[in-house]
Write a structure and sequence with these properties.
- It is built from 2 helices and 14 strands.
- By secondary structure, it is mainly beta.
- The strands form 2 sheets. Strands 3, 4, 5, 6, 7, 8, 9, 10, 11, 12, 13 and 14 form a 12-stranded antiparallel beta sheet that branches. Strands 1-2 form a two-stranded antiparallel ribbon.
- The longest helix is centred in the C-terminal third of the chain and has 11 residues.
- The chain starts with 16 loop residues before the first strand and ends with a helix.
- About 45% of the residues are buried.
- Bound molecules: calcium ion (CA) (3 copies).
Length: about 260
């Protein structure tokens, strides 16, 4: 698991750096608990590099490195394969390391990602198809303003956030990613995560999806990288261009579009 340093000041981190070969580790987090694992394709589809993380029931990774964050920005990719119906929290931010009170929650309800202040009331929502990877970026401010982006670019904003709402006013001290409060009434499956990164001031923004060889550009060499990834020679970039949880021939057309649009 990769741990990225904060671009401006405070600690940030990411999931999933391969330790040896394609062994995956969650050691960059402060701690882990319960039904959460990290793995490479084909065991577990990923968005980027070699590993992703999946929670199948109550389980999470915990980051207590935030300290009195007045502003806290988190970006991650999430993919649900939960079966049945229900609503489950996938990301929670707290006002203490212990972990304390919930200040911000993102949950999944089978068809949408839902955004909450403290424990209960849903204050924002965005459609999120089951089985597909979705980009989530959320910016929490202890003055009581939260903005979120789902499948949208928080750096350019694509004009504006997906949603905004009035939130809690405490400062963030820790976060949990996974299924920290269990899977609720969902009957099986799990929720996968990749490319978690947090900042204290600047937006994180999306990965270059379709940049299969990870050289930070889209061009014809990404076709070959998709081909290599299909052959299970895993590529360090983002070959699952259509974000459907697999790398196959359908990603070529998506790469073609990415090249044409950039
Ligand atoms: Ca802390
Ligand atoms: Ca590339
Ligand atoms: Ca794909």
């Amino acid at each position: 698991m990769k741990k990225f340093m904060e671009r401006v000041c405070l600690g940030s981190l990411i999931l999933l750096v391969p330790v040896s070969g394609f062994a995956c580790s969650m050691d960059q987090w402060t701690s882990q608990s319960g039904a959460v694992t990290a793995a490479s394709p084909p065991t577990l589809p990923r968005v980027s590099e070699f590993c992703a993380m999946q929670a199948t029931n109550t389980g999470y990774v915990h980051d207590s490195s935030p300290v009195d964050h007045a502003t806290f920005i988190a970006r991650f990719y999430v993919r649900s394969t939960l079966t049945g119906s229900g609503q489950a929290d996938v990301f929670v931010a707290y006002d203490a390391d212990s972990p304390g009170n919930q200040l911000l929650k993102v949950s999944y309800d089978g068809a949408n990602l839902d955004f909450h202040s403290t424990s209960g009331t849903q204050l924002g929502t965005a459609a999120a198809i089951s089985g597909k990877w979705h980009l989530v970026e959320v910016e929490y401010n202890s003055a009581g303003n939260t903005r979120f982006w789902v499948n949208a670019n928080a750096v350019t904003g694509n004009g504006s956030p997906t949603g905004t709402y009035t939130s809690a006013t405490g400062e963030i001290e820790s976060v949990r990613l996974g299924l920290p409060n269990g899977r609720g009434t969902f009957s099986g499956g799990g929720v996968s995560f990749d490319a978690y990164e947090s900042h204290s001031t600047t937006p994180v923004g999306p990965l270059k999806i379709g940049d299969a060889n990870g050289d930070d550009t889209w061009n014809i060499f990404d076709y070959g990288a998709v081909q290599q990834d299909i052959a299970e020679n895993l590529q360090i970039g983002q070959p699952d261009c259509n974000l459907d949880g697999g790398v196959n021939i359908f990603d070529y057309g998506c790469v073609q579009t990415a090249i044409a649009n950039n």
